[in-house]
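cron nightly-structures :: item 1 of 1
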Amino acid sequence: MKTLAVCLTALAIASSAAAQAERPAAGPERPFQLAPRVEKTLANGLRVIVTRQEIVPKVSVTLTVRSGYSSDPAILTGLAALTADIVQEGTKTRTSREIRRQFFGMGGSLSAAVSQDYSSLSARGLAEFAPQLIDLVADVAMNPTMPPDEVAILKQQRLQNVAQQKASPQFLANREFRRALFGEHPYARTSETEASLRAIDRAKLEEFHREHYRPNNAFLLVVGAVDANAVLTAAEKSFGVWTRGDVPKPTYATPPSIEGRRVYFVQRPNSIQSSIALGNIAVKRSDPRWYELSLANAIYGGAFNSRIVRNIREEKGYTYSPGSILNGFADAGFYRFSADVRNEVTGATLSEVFKEIDKMREEGSEGAELQGAKQYLRGIFPIQTATQAGLSSVLNNVYVFDLPKDYPESYGAKIAAVTAAQVKSAAHTLLGSENSVIAIVGDYAKVKDQLGAFSHITFLDTDGKPISAPTSQP
């Protein structure tokens, strides 16, 4: 039996080696090409965009209003998000239950998403019901009744979410990171608060809807197995009576200047790990340098084989899932590294993060590493747009942020054209070193001896209120 096992093992190894030797080479890269988009602007200012995608016999209908968290008054954060929820709870001709039943009957559903610069209502369903889906989305957006009892229920649900968020170290780290980074700029707001929710009432929701839900502040995006002319006809019929109006624009305060490595420590007693968010202000989403910045971020921490992952995950074992993101909005953006690490390696993690930042800024990237990052970004882009929902998301960004119309088709070529010199320059632009915001959520008594290199530390409680430096636990 032992001889048989040895023979089988040897055969398996030989078969594996043969399979690897005979593996065919990758074929030439295929050009990425979407079906032509058909656009029309209605007389009331609503832009309608239709893209045919026939992978499945379904359709995605997205109505995007170009107002989001940044349009909320500072004391009413969450107003846009609550508005996007409440409009789904009944219209002049349909109850909340009837709306959901009708979407379900067309093999679909309705959901809302709110970001810093926009609010979207997205419907999914069978393509044969595209005109009816468009009409139902139009009714929800144009004719909400905002029943008082539904307003009360939604507010209570969101109050519960706020309470749950306080228990999330990752949420707290990101919240304080964004507040410190953006200051009075509306991009500092990541979520509603108990105070802002209690200040929101039905009258304020109606006012926000009346001022922002206007056709000249919106666009309709339809992706699916549909005929463009039929969709345009349906959109004209359903949305043509929507009246345009003057829409208030958000005001953008100048973010505070960052001098030094400033730590914002959220005291969370008895934490067994530290949640870290570290980064800087970045460019707005429409900046033409987005491609080189994306590459610099992917090489540094935005991909699973990035430098920071290899360093503090694979080599040192400080954390399981470190990473960095580059996020862009209409007026500005940010870069953020984040990780959850054991208390005893909190300081060491920060040292390695800045070491990798300094190395990236000094040396940049070239050769196989740069080419690998290009292949990664170019390879995942077609995957991201393979579904109707994914393609809708990419196109939504095109029209929210006024990106070039050929952005989906030209993305791969733009990434491929980035030079090593541009990546090095992007690292200087993106990755701050001496001047950075560092948010840490954890137990200060357990990590304070590791933070001696930081002279600027602000202490906060889990509500974000300033506190004195925590004392050692007895």
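cron nightly-structures :: done
Residues 154 and 328 are 29 Å apart (CA to CA).
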